Amino acid sequence: MHHKELPELKEAKPSAPAKRLRADASRNREKLIGIAAIEFAERGGSASLEEIARKAGVGIGTLYRHFPTREHLVEVVYRREVEALCDAAVELARNNAPDVALAEWMQRFVDYIAAKRGMANSLRILFDTNSEVFANTSGMIGSALQRLVDAAVADGSVRSDIDISDISQALSGIYSAPDTPDWRDRSRRLVSLLMDGLRWGSARSRR
């Protein structure tokens, strides 16, 4: 007896409406993350999830479908901020002189710290429940800074006796500065002063 061959089963392709729904969901998620980063940086712990959803043009139910808790949203925003800061180091190094790249990156570090300060309470909860988040990102920023400093030292545009840990400590100090209305402007001025100190005594400044 001959058996008829079964027709080859092909994986069903998603319909156009299903694709559109997934694309819309992805865009909504990205908008929520972007708006949340701004709100956390500007409003800190008082940033409202309802306001984030409103500014992203979605309902609060949509936000909760993507991020069931505030901490879920904070984790994604925090990872994205770290990645953006590290990506900025690559971009700035490619398009600027080494000392200019370092100076611009340190100014962007202020924005990163602003967002991090705004997420402080949720980040503490995350650290207690999922310290892996920080283990995966802790070395990324240090490595980005190290590459920028090494390039500027090799170029002779900053001092050669720089200890990277001193720069890291100076930059991290702005995290614990008093939360005054002029905190960000003051932090930018301090970073500029730090950069002036790094340039002073460099091979280029002695020419």
From TrEMBL:
The UniProt entry, under Pfam families, shows: TetR_C_43, TetR_N
Is DNA-binding one of the keywords UniProt gives this record?
yes
Region of interest: Disordered: 1-24
Keywords, sorted A to Z: DNA-binding, Transcription, Transcription regulation
Residue ranges with Basic and acidic residues bias: 1-13
Transmembrane: is it a keyword of this entry? no
Q: Which residues bind DNA?
A: 48-67
Domain annotation HTH tetR-type: ranges: 26-85
Q: Which InterPro entries does the record cross-reference, listed alphabetically?
A: Homeodomain-like_sf, HTH-type_TetR-like_transc_reg, HTH_TetR, Tet_transcr_reg_TetR-rel_C_sf, TetR_SbtR-like_C
- Protein's organism: Phyllobacterium bourgognense
What the entry lists under SUPFAM superfamilies is as follows: Homeodomain-like, Tetracyclin repressor-like, C-terminal domain
Q: What is this protein called?
A: TetR family transcriptional regulator
Gene Ontology terms for molecular function: DNA-binding transcription factor activity; transcription cis-regulatory region binding
